[in-house]
Design a protein that fits this description.
seven-stranded mixed sheet; alpha/beta; globular; Rossmann fold; single chain
Amino acid sequence: MPTPVRTNIRIIKMRDPDGHISFDETRIVRHIYKGASSLSFIHSSLSSRLVHDEMLVPYEFIADDKIISPRYQFITYPYEWSDAQLHDAACLTLRIARICEKYNYELKDASAWNVIFDGCKSIFCDHLSFKEIEHREWWAFGQFARHFIYPLALSNTVSLNAHKVFLLYRDGLNHDDFKNIIGSKIYLSRYLPLLLIRNSRGQPSAPLLHVKKGRTLHENLFSLAEYLLRDKRTDKTNTTWINYTKERGHYGNASIQLKREYVDKWIKKVRPEWVVDFGANTGEFSYIARKYNSKVIAIDHDHDCMENLYLNNHGTKDIYPVIAELSDIVGGRGWNGSEYPGLIDRMMNKIDMVMMLAIIHHLTISEGIGVHDVFRLAHKITRCAAILELVNNDDPQARLLADQRNRDISNLSIEHQKALLQGYFDIEDSINYADGNRELVLARKK
């Protein structure tokens, strides 16, 4: 198995006047500044309740101005989430906000970036986002709308998946852009009340929020948010790739079964702690890795495949769905590109096995990426091994892709690919199938 990782301590100045964090591979230390508005919350019974109910990341004091909490092993970000994940993050945020209000606390930040996923289970991670209520309005509602309501509303009305909003806007979608994109469709939707938002804080206008007897303005905003989030699509069946495992016809059932058997055999042999499954689709081979207690980062560009995987594993902690285009992986985000590390950086020194099944030929033919560059990426990410599917230039699917793009793939033979592979890996085992047009390879990192 891989050698232990050298411990590095990093410090991040958060966009929060209450403190900053430092962390290594196993823990996060929050340094709380003098007079921080969140300090009373951190000492309160409310925080203990949220931790107990698994809504807030656990923590303990190591000094009057420092708390430590466990560092979750792999973090995903809103621009990598399916709509269902963002919806669950919104519901968690609202649930916490409602509980806090009963204790006279509120969330001063209602950001999607303050929610993390431990596998397919959401949890709030920012201990400094809480303060005592001073005014009878929820200042953070505008941010909640930008990060949750507007992106999910667009997904439900104009089929723009919410994660794409965060690829464009780190701080969510502003009100004017939302109105311009949704257009006249807003008049036939439940989102019509959003036209009444007027002020710079993103708060709805006063007539909409007339406070009924026995209710607070916070409660009215919570109820409005819950009403606007009530629509949630869960039937993801409208993309090319969601039915791939049922409809693939470029090799027969015997070859598919052989492929599954060898993936199973090799994962059992290597026993990787962490696996990344590139082109995971709906998780056919991710599930095999999980069978051997591996934690799996399942990556696919198709939103609906990842949403299907998330919904089918809701609440579990061993599969991490990630929406990402392998040919265009996003780098670091935020200030200086360091607040939110890129996907490759988050996987470095962690992954014991890379799986690239039925994807390499798409990268080389459809995207024009060199085979050696694909192998170099696999070598860079894994600490131990890789399972790779090599597709010959006579394969029907490879020929179809080449014809669609008018590309010459005469040099894309399995033997040529294996020769390039040996610059990065030792081939430990292999199996040929699909009428000799495909070869599955177990490779050990050099």
